[in-house]
Amino acid sequence: MLDFIKTVLKKFTEDARMNKRGFFTTFFKTTPEDYTDGEYVEIDIERTGDYVAPALKDARTGSVVIDEDIFTEKRFKPPYSCLKQPVPLYELMQRQPGEKDDDSVVGTWFARLVVKIKKALSKFHRMFKEQIELQCAQIMQTGVVQLSDENGNIVYDLDYKMKTSHKPTAAIAWSNTATATPLLDLEALCDAINDDGKSDPAIAIFGRNAWNYAIKNADFKEAVKKDGMNLGQLSPALKNRGGRYMGYVDIGSYRLELWVYNDSYETLKSNTRVKFMNPDKVIVTAAVEDLDFRIVFGGVPTGGMKEPFASIVPAEVTYDGFARIHNRVWFDENGDTYTAESKMRSLAIPVSVDKFGCLTVA
């Protein structure tokens, strides 16, 4: 029986959906120092200019004093999330979905408990993954993280002060396909990123409507290159992450990979599907390897577990460097109920805040 339990519970850590990053999460990384046990995390956000060294009229006057780079020490408190599912003992006496009436192994009450806990923990982990993807998507479109409670009320609001010049609106709405100027709009945003972030813009991510408008514009359509689909030059990190590569375009001195992302998530109670990528926006960013975007984790208090689950449920699970989740299972004797619980405190942070921007097109 113990081997059976270990086999069942091991499956949630091998969930293919959990071991594959979301599209926006791919732009972010987690280093060992980003896993903390404290309530707050501290990160220095540095902005360096591109001043030209002055010349001296006379070498005898001595050198020019240069101040240190300007940096801002930021202290962030990652949001706290906790999900649980109670399993009353009386439910374990009933046949479960997928069981046969004469099933002698899965039909035992304890094995049924293990299956229910496995399903609950797997579901919680996937929900946490979606929250991380949402944070990353929000940052790259607005520079703000806003998270809601189960009733849809915003309970966490953090503004990273993205520059106004990095959040422009097209002068002519792209829905006016005959008169819109998508190439000029994108070039202006590329210039802002290049000037402020000191990196070449390399990737453009389109919402569904933005792409449909752009490709109907004669100048943009003519500029898009699809020869061989440029497959050998694609950002490796973005392949097979849910986005669709549409070609590339040369705009002024910039070359942008063109991607369309149309995935969505579901709100908890309203069951409403919402696009991660605003359909009317275009994100422009430096190459993934040039970005310093982080996913950091704060400490999580936990009461621990008793046997038998202490030996077979991992108290902490880390997925491919982008999620750290804490698990617990306990029994309430008064209520004759087992409870499966998962907790997470994660926060996406755009350390290189000037290396991306987002254009509103309609």
Quick structural overview:
This protein has 362 residues and is α+β, with helices and mostly antiparallel strands. It has 6 helices and 18 strands. The strands form 6 sheets. The protein has a 6-stranded mixed beta sheet, with helices on both faces.
Quote the distance from N terminus to C terminus.
60 Å
How would a crystallographer describe the biggest sheet? 6 strands, mixed
How much β-strand is present in the residues? 25-35%
Instruction: Name the helix and strand elements from N-terminus to C-terminus, one letter apiece.
Output: HEEEHEEHEHHEEEEEEEHEEEEE
Architecture overview:
The model is unreliable at 64-71 (pLDDT under 50). A hairpin with a 3-residue loop joins strand 14 and strand 15. The chain is elongated. The chain has 362 residues and is of the alpha+beta class. The strands form 6 sheets. A 6-stranded mixed β-sheet has the order 7-8-9-6-12-18, sandwiched between helices. The N and C termini lie far apart (60 Å). The longest helix is centred in the middle third of the chain and has 34 residues, at 109-142. It has helices spanning 2-10, 109-142, 182-197, 208-215, 218-223, 309-312, and strands spanning 41-47, 70-76, 81-88, 144-148, 154-159, 201-206, 224-225, 244-251, 254-260, 264-266, 273-275, 281-286, 293-297, 316-319, 323-332, 337-344, 346-350, 356-360. The protein contains 6 helices and 18 strands.
Compile the SSE list and pairings.
Elements: H1 2-10, E1 41-47, E2 70-76, E3 81-88, H2 109-142, E4 144-148, E5 154-159, H3 182-197, E6 201-206, H4 208-215, H5 218-223, E7 224-225, E8 244-251, E9 254-260, E10 264-266, E11 273-275, E12 281-286, E13 293-297, H6 309-312, E14 316-319, E15 323-332, E16 337-344, E17 346-350, E18 356-360
Parallel strand pairs: 6-9
Antiparallel strand pairs: 1-2, 3-16, 4-5, 6-12, 7-8, 8-9, 10-11, 12-18, 13-17, 14-15, 15-16
